[in-house]
Design goal:
Blueprint: E1 23-27, E2 31-35, E3 61-62, H1 66-69, E4 71-75, H2 82-95, E5 106-107, E6 117-127, E7 133-140, E8 148-151, E9 175-179, E10 189-197, E11 203-212, H3 218-222, H4 226-229, E12 250-252, E13 263-277, E14 285-289, E15 304-315, H5 324-330, H6 346-381, E16 383-384, H7 389-410, H8 417-424, H9 433-458, H10 464-485, H11 495-508, H12 512-529, E17 532-536
Parallel strand pairs: 4-17
Antiparallel strand pairs: 1-2, 3-16, 5-15, 6-7, 6-8, 6-15, 9-13, 10-11, 10-13, 12-13, 14-15
Helix pairs in contact: 2-6, 7-8, 7-9, 10-11, 10-12
Length: 537
Amino acid sequence: MANNTATETKKLDGTRIFLIVFACVALVGILTATVFAIVAAVNKNKSKAFDYMKVDLKKYVEVSSDLYSSYEVEIDVSAVSDQDLKDAILKVLCQNKITPDTPVINLPNVTLSAGDVANIYYRGYTLGENDEKQYFDGGCNFSDTSAYSLELGSGSFIPGFEYNLVGKNQKNYATMEKATSGLVQAGDIIKLTYSSYYADGTARMSQTATIDLSDPTVDETWGKGFAEYFALKPIGTQFATNETGNKLLVETTRESDDPNATDCYFDMTVTEVYRIDDSEKERLVVEAYFPSDYANSDDLKGKTAYFEVYIRTAKDYTTPEYNDEFITETLKISAEDLASFEGATLVEKYENSVKAELDNAYNEEVDSAVEVKFWDHIIANANFKKLPESEVTAKYNEDLDEINSMYASYSSYYNSLDAFAREYLGLDSKADWKATLRSNAEIAVKQKLAFYYIVRQENLIPSDEEYNAIYERLFGEYLQSYLDYYEITEDSENYDEKVEAAKEDVKSQFADSYWYELVLYDYAIDKLIDNATVKNG
């Protein structure tokens, strides 16, 4: 099952626009950097009317020290596993595959390696208490018109899936073929279109399902006699129309409080079947797992999954051999670079360095999740007396300007600003997006009031030395993002001059108050989240 995670320009959540800790702030118009929502991108020429460090904040908010001196948060961030390290190495090998001058063509019976692009059909399941297969929604692409094109090492699928396809060749495993004519045979997997009247009095028209007639639980799900009914039924022809014209040929009974209740299915067509020939060879099954923070299904979080895979064709790329020479010659990492990591070989040292990077990323993700929970906790429990209207209006206008700016870039895809704004904010078609902007602006101001209240109450102000150190680090991160975006490297012509120009460009985008708030938040938040008792998973 694919992760379905994609890189977007920015998608604002309808309930937390600019509120989630580490929200995006525009840098140089198109570059983004992650900072907390209290930091506003203040233009150099814009004066600051409301000074959070000077006004009497008790007129607006009071935050009990009990809310931040000791508190509990629950988060769900997947710990780094051995499989994560294997997947990370696979990704590096994929990124360094050798692409020839002539196009690589699809071939059958390719032994897969990192970087190969396999065209696959797959069907995923978990195991129940008695090891029975439990196929899950969204885990099968048999009904797709074409096979899924998967680059091994792309990270498109859940952990373990791509890694466990390495070394596999379809010629060694059972095949799956599609049929769009003939008769349904016992054990076929059918793609069924149908309508239904259910025993509970509800009805649904024009549905589609992929059903494995060999699955012993089919009758439990669809009703007694359902699987048997399809034996020798024609593929591609509508059936289930009786003599009276009521179209209720299939009546099935499921286990329920009323044993006489029946479900009725009609207007049925088996549009195609998927026939697996495992009479001589076993099916190719790869093991993977759903991370504990898997977002697409609560039922699948943390579960081991198994996928039957059928490789149609693949593009066979050459991947460098994974050894010490690959580390030094291809990745350009020297023995000195890896000297601080344990290992008898450079490969072992390199893997420990990758593991350290994964651990650092995990710790950062935990901190980010704790920050989000911290501010949810503060906003829900602080005593807000009133809000400075000037700040709410300024935040509202800032977000409105951004939507207008984005709409100007994508107006050709939408019939109105309203349509774009609702999608941009993740709202349904009837929601008032301007009211949502207003509500989110109020929450953002509450967040800022509470933050400055705590900072002043606890005197969380960095010394000059601390301020300068944090500023240099943060500015360096912004600068590096700028250089990466514009592909400015040490090999670039006039590198030093371009770096100096980039520094000035970054500095020119924001007022001093922006950097002050950024440094202040960075200094204070670590101390605040250190007070949390964290329960993960």
